[in-house]
Specification:
It contains 6 helices and 8 strands. The strands form 3 sheets. A 4-stranded parallel beta sheet has the order 1-2-3-4. Strands 5-6 form a two-stranded parallel sheet. It is an alpha/beta fold. It has helices spanning 28-33, 49-54, 84-94, 128-140, 142-147, 169-174, and strands spanning 8-10, 22-24, 43-46, 58-60, 62-64, 77-79, 99-102, 151-154. The protein has one domain (8-174). The longest helix has 13 residues, at 128-140. The mean pLDDT is 94.
């Protein structure tokens, strides 16, 4: 993907894509654990006020914690849905993406809670109730995104999402 698309790395996925254009993490505990991601040179974004105060190069994104739907009117603010992936999807739409490729949007804990294993104590790990909500919110976003003429492709190797066409990353990059 490097050099072929704009990339938003979410949380620990920055370890796989340190060259990403944007790093998004919503929780202060993550920013604290990784020292504000000091070696990341792209744009850093978070909804967490404390993270943005403690690490001045982390820019604040607003969040509507009373809404689990995409925020399409108030640019720079995302819907909540309790999930960084949902926030990043909302931001990609606001940034004007014509095509969005989802990677690592497994939305299930059947194969473990994260690709990198559990977060350490003091950081959140999902349970089935969390991922059921995330699936519901991200799948519900498919129709409004499609109505805007934006193509979203799910290139995640494993995914419980149902409302996005599924294909390999290579196919997604070529279509």
């Amino acid at each position: 993907m490097r050099g072929r698309a704009r990339v938003i790395a979410i949380n620990n996925s920055v370890q796989l894509a340190p060259w990403a254009d944007i790093l998004y993490a919503c929780d202060y505990a993550w920013w604290r654990r990784f020292g504000g991601a000091s070696t990341f040179t792209g744009l850093k974004l978070s909804v967490d006020q404390l993270a943005c105060k403690r690490y001045p190069d982390v820019h604040r994104v607003g969040v509507n914690k009373h809404s689990d739907v995409l925020e399409l009117v108030k640019i720079g603010t995302v819907g909540w849905a309790g999930n960084s992936g949902f926030h990043a999807l909302n931001l990609a739409v606001q940034f004007g993406a014509a095509k969005i490729i989802l990677l690592g949007f497994d939305m299930t804990i059947a194969h473990g809670v994260h690709w990198h294993g559990k977060h350490p104590a003091g950081m959140n790990n999902p349970n089935e109730r969390n991922v059921a909500r995330w699936r519901r919110c991200i799948d519900a976003a498919a129709a409004p995104i499609a109505a805007m003429g934006i193509k979203v492709i799910n290139a995640s190797a494993i995914s419980a999402l149902a409302n996005y066409p599924k294909m390999s990353l290579q196919e997604a990059l070529e279509c």
